[in-house]
Write a structure and sequence with these properties.
alpha+beta, four-stranded mixed beta sheet
């Protein structure tokens, strides 16, 4: 199991400079990447996005990189004279022939162009790949470490739920008899001496109707199955399970609510409230699972 929360860093040095990459992750339903790269590495952005999609299935991931070039290494540039002259002519035309400051035109994108340097580009790419791999590995390791803590917390919640369910099962066996006794007592209070003339079959018919309405055996079986599946998913390794256990959490709450609506028994109601509270705790933990 992996958490969506984590931090990773990669740092690589080369004759061109030092590159540091940082990755941060928080929970999100899908992969949401925020990427900030230095100008020299912008061309590698598609590779980063592809790699993130390949490695991670959920989470809001922020990647930032900082490059410190070695002092004294100068990038070679050339001036796009055609574009510069065209811009200068247009400025003079728009300013009614007045002189303009050519220096300002150098700040316009495309006027000053960095000369391609294949050797430098390859060195920067190798530097970037090394730093990114180190950051990805560090980030994944942190997510797995946090995921281990999540697994323990979720497993503990599942076991507490199973304990509540055992109490529900024990109490459900007594519901019918409790209802029969209460019904008999109420009828005695209402009819008094006439109670002896009441057809016993009519009383049992009412008990049978109640038994059918209050039967929670199917809900208990399904809830046991969901909790078993939850613990089974936690035990799996190397497989994204976040969406699966999110669905299981919804089904667990659904069955819990059904049990609560069917049974008005005090003991079962107490266990249902405990189960709902545990469901909320489970939902909070599951929200961080990748």
């Amino acid at each position: 199991m992996e958490s969506m929360t984590g931090y990773g860093q990669g740092r690589q040095e080369s004759p061109l400079g030092v590159l540091t990459v940082e990755i941060r992750g928080v929970n999100h339903r899908f992969v949401d990447l925020s990427l900030r790269l230095p100008h020299d590495f912008m061309a590698l952005e598609p590779w980063v996005r592809t790699e993130v999609q390949r490695r991670f299935n959920r989470g809001k991931i922020t990647i930032s990189a900082q490059f410190q070039p070695v002092p004294g290494l100068v990038q070679r540039y050339e001036i796009n004279s055609v574009l510069l002259e065209h811009l200068a002519d247009e400025c003079r035309r728009l300013s009614a022939g007045r002189d303009i400051s050519v220096e300002n035109l150098f700040t316009i994108p495309g006027v000053v162009v960095a000369l391609p340097d294949q050797s430098r580009a390859e060195q920067l790419k190798e530097l970037f790949m090394g730093a990114m791999k180190e950051a990805f590995d560090s980030f994944s390791s942190e997510r797995k470490k946090e995921g281990g803590k999540l697994a323990l917390a979720i497993e503990q919640i599942a076991e507490e739920m199973e304990g509540c369910l055992e109490h529900v099962k024990g109490s459900s066996d007594e519901i019918v008899e409790k209802y029969r006794q209460r019904l008999h007592e109420r009828m005695e209070d209402l009819l008094g001496p006439k109670m002896a003339s009441l057809d016993p079959g009519r009383l049992e018919q009412e008990v049978a109707i109640f038994t059918d309405k209050a039967d929670i055996s199917e809900e208990i079986v399904r809830l046991e199955s969901h909790l078993g599946s939850l613990k089974g998913f936690i035990a799996k390794k190397g497989e994204p399970i976040g969406r699966k256990i999110e669905f299981l959490t919804q089904e667990i709450l659904r069955e819990t609510n059904t049990i609560g609506s069917k049974c008005r028994d005090l003991e079962i109601t107490r266990e249902v409230l405990s189960l709902k509270n545990l469901c909320e705790n489970l939902r909070e933990q599951v929200a961080n699972v990748a």
